[in-house]
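Recall the central idea of this unit: under ordinary conditions, the amino acid sequence of a chain determines the structure it adopts. In this exercise we apply that idea directly, starting from the sequence alone.
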Amino acid sequence: MDAIAHVVRCFEDGNIVHVDGSIDPLRDREVINTELILADLDTVSKRMAKTASQAKSGDKTFKAQLVILEGLHALLDSGKPARLMEQQDEMGQKLQKELCLLTAKPVLYVANVSEEHINTGNPWVDSLRKAAEEENASVVMISGAIEEELSGLAPEERKDFLADMGLAEPGLNRLITAGYQLLGLINYFTVGEKETRAWTIKRGTKAPQAAGVIHTDFERGFIRAEVISYEDYIACGSEAAAREKGVLRLEGKEYIVQDGDCMNFRFNV
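Accordingly, the structure predicted from this sequence is:
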C-alpha cells in the first residue's frame, strides 16, 4: 500500500507570496481534496456505466458490484474521500483495490511551519489537525526553513543546531516515522561483520514471512529465528555479548516480529 503526502503552508512570511494571496491551510487542503475526489468520481462513474450494462444480463456478481460502486459514487459526490467507506466483504475490497482510487489511500498532511512554531505549533496547525481527524488522516509538523539550514551543516553541527532549536531529530526523520506509522510498517535488522541492514515489513508479520523479504528460500525452509531486541543489542554492544548475557532468544514460526528486532534466520532447503 502507498500513501499520499500533502505539504500545507502554516506560516506567514511577507517575502514568500502565497498563490491565493493569504494563508489558509484548510482552503489549501480543500483544493487538494476536491481535485482528488473529482478524479475518483470520474473513475467510479466510468466503471459504474460499464458494470450497469453488464448487470442487465442478470449476473449477480455485476449487480453486487454496482451496489458497491453506487455507494462509492454517493460518498465521493458528497465531497468525502473513499477511505471513509470501509469495504466489509472480499468483493468490495477487491473492487476498490482494482479502482486504485486516490482518495482511498492513507493521507499525511505535512504542516510547514516557521522556526518559532516548530515546538509549539500554531492555530493553523490546530485547525489542520482537527480537519484531518474528520477524514481519518494524519498530520506531521516540520519547518522547511530548518530543514534547509540542516542540509548545509556537517553532522556534528547539525546536532548542535537541533539542540539549540529544542529538537531531538530533523523533521525528515519525523516525516519518515509518521509515514511508517500511517502505513503500518516496521523495520527489523540483520547484523553482520560487513554490513547492518534494515528490512521493512508490515506490522504483525511472522518470522518466516519476514525472512522471505530477504529471500524466498529463507521463508520456504525456515527453521527458527535468533532474535535480539534493538535495546538489548545496543546495551550489550554485540551479538556475542548478547549471547553471553542470555538476551538472545530462539523464536519459531509463530513469532511476530517486533520493530527494531535484530535477527538471524536458520533455514534448510
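The first strand starts at residue 4 and ends at 9.
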